[in-house]
Each structure stands twice: as C-alpha cells, then as structure tokens.
Amino acid sequence: MNITKYVSILLIAMTSMLSSCQLVEGIFKAGMGFGIFIVVAIIALIIFIIMRIGRGKKDA
C-alpha cells in the first residue's frame, strides 16, 4: 500500500472526527440551555404553588 492511500484515509478520519466533535458541542450547548430553562420553570412553578397555598390560608 502506498503512502497516499494512508494519507487519504487519515484525512477522512480527521475530518469526520472534527465534525463529530462540533456536533457533540452543539448538542451539549443546546442541552445546557434547555436544562437552564427547565430549572427556571420548575422554580417558577414551586413559587406559584407556594403563593397559591399561602393565599388560600389567608382567605379562610
């Protein structure tokens, strides 16, 4: 096998690794944003429930 075949295989492997790393990076960035959104939504829901329970006790 000659050297050009090795070089071409190496270049193809390197480009596929680079693109997959960028893909994984994008997925983690999107996951982090979605995770932050979920945490904020859960905190808002807890505050809403606590306020609702507190308001119910004042009316009784």
Automatic annotation (TrEMBL):
Keywords assigned by UniProt? Membrane, Transmembrane, Transmembrane helix
> Membrane-spanning residues where?
33-54
- Its protein name is Phosphatidate cytidylyltransferase
Q: Which organism is it from?
A: Lacibacter sediminis
